[in-house]
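Hi R.,

As promised on Friday, here is the backbone we talked about, encoded as C-alpha cells. Could you run it through your design pipeline when you get a chance and send me back a sequence?
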C-alpha cells in the first residue's frame, strides 16, 4: 500500500513514530505535524533540481529566473526547451553538463519515456528507475522528488548529508552513519511505513529542511 501525506496520515505517522522512537517523540512534540503535502509541479521541480546542483540557493534562484527569462518569464514546455540549443542555455549561467541534462529531461518527456500522469500508479522503486534514467538525476534527487513532490511517506533518504549529520548527533554515532547503518536504525525503531516523516523530523532538528538540489 502506498501512503500519501494528508492530515490523517501525518497524525498517524506522528503517533507511530512517537511510540517507537524516543528521539523522534521529542522532535514531534517540538515541531508538531510534519509539513509534507503533494503537488504536481513535477516537471518544474526536476528542472530546478538540475539547475540547483552544487549551487547556493541564491545562485540557483538567479539562474532559474534567467532561465524563465529565455521563455518570456514563464516556465517552458519540454518542446520549448528542445528548440533551445546548449549555448543559449549556457548563456544564463548553466554549465554545459547541466544544459545537456535539462535537454535530456525534456527529451524523455517529449518522447514519452517519462510520463508524469502515470507516476501515481507506480511503486517508489519504479519511479526511482524512471527518474534516474534521465542524465543528471540521481537517487538522492529521486528520493527528494518522492518525498517533497509526491509526498510519499515511506522513503528513507539514506544518502542525504543533512540526514546523516543529524542522525550522528541525535543517536550518538561517533562518525557519519553509512546508508546501511541508517537503514538498520530505521528498522530498529520501526520507522516503516513512515520513513519520510521520520526524515522530516530529523531534518527539522537541524532547522534545515532540504530543497531539491542534487
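Update: got your reply. Pasting your designed sequence below so it's all in one thread:
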Amino acid at each position: 500500500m502506498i501512503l500519501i501525506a494528508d492530515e490523517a496520515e501525518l497524525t498517524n505517522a506522528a503517533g507511530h513514530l512517537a511510540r517507537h522512537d524516543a528521539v523522534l517523540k521529542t522532535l514531534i512534540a517540538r515541531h508538531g505535524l510534519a509539513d509534507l503535502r503533494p503537488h504536481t509541479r513535477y516537471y518544474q521541480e526536476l528542472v530546478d533540481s538540475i539547475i540547483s546542483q552544487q549551487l547556493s540557493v541564491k545562485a540557483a534562484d538567479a539562474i532559474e529566473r534567467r532561465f524563465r527569462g529565455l521563455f518570456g518569464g514563464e516556465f517552458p514546455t519540454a518542446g520549448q526547451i528542445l528548440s533551445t540549443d546548449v549555448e543559449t542555455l549556457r548563456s544564463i549561467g548553466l554549465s554545459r553538463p547541466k544544459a545537456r541534462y535539462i535537454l535530456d529531461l525534456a527529451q524523455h518527456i517529449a518522447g514519452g519515456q517519462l510520463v508524469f500522469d502515470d507516476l501515481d500508479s507506480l511503486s517508489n522503486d519504479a519511479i526511482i528507475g524512471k527518474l534516474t534514467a534521465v542524465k543528471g538525476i540521481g537517487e538522492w534527487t529521486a528520493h527528494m522528488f518522492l518525498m517533497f513532490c509526491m509526498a510519499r511517506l515511506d522513503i528513507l533518504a539514506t544518502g542525504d548529508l543533512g540526514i546523516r549529520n543529524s542522525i550522528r548527533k541525535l543517536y550518538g554515532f561517533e562518525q557519519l552513519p553509512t546508508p546501511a547503518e541508517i537503514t538498520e536504525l530505521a528498522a530498529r525503531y520501526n520507522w516503516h511505513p513512515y520513513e519520510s516523516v521520520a526524515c522530516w523530523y530529523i531534518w527539522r532538528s537541524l532547522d534545515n529542511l532540504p530543497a531539491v538540489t542534487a
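One thing I noticed while checking it: DSSP finds twelve helices and no strands in the chain.

Thanks again,
M.
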